[in-house]
Design goal:
Elements (H helix, E strand, L loop, with lengths): L8 H12 L4 H8 L3 H11 L12 H6 L14 H4 L11
Length: about 90
């Protein structure tokens, strides 16, 4: 049976710091000289999470969304499908 690993505060800090910058579990394990799975288990116990990724949805991605509702007629995203004219920006006085 394998021996229990004695975790140090320095090793825990490396896991927190590297995971906080978005490093992979494999990279953290490589820097500590441990296997990826060992570092994953310790990281989960410490609740060391990667930073939240911000996903920017582009307008054309909305057209590809399978779950979106129908767009109203003449909507700016679909205007080009209806007409070769530029989208009307409202009446100018």
């Amino acid at each position: 049976m394998p021996q229990a690993r004695e975790w140090t505060a320095a090793a825990d800090r490396v896991i927190f710091d590297m995971r906080g910058t978005g490093e992979t579990w494999a990279a953290i394990g490589l820097s500590l000289g441990l296997s990826r799975n060992t570092v994953i288990e310790r990281g989960r116990r410490l609740q060391a999470e990667a930073p939240v990724r911000v996903v920017v949805v582009k307008e054309y991605d909305l057209l590809e969304d399978q779950n979106r509702g129908p767009l109203p007629a003449g909507h700016p995203l679909t205007w080009g499908l209806l007409s070769s004219e530029p989208y009307p920006m409202g009446e100018q006085k």
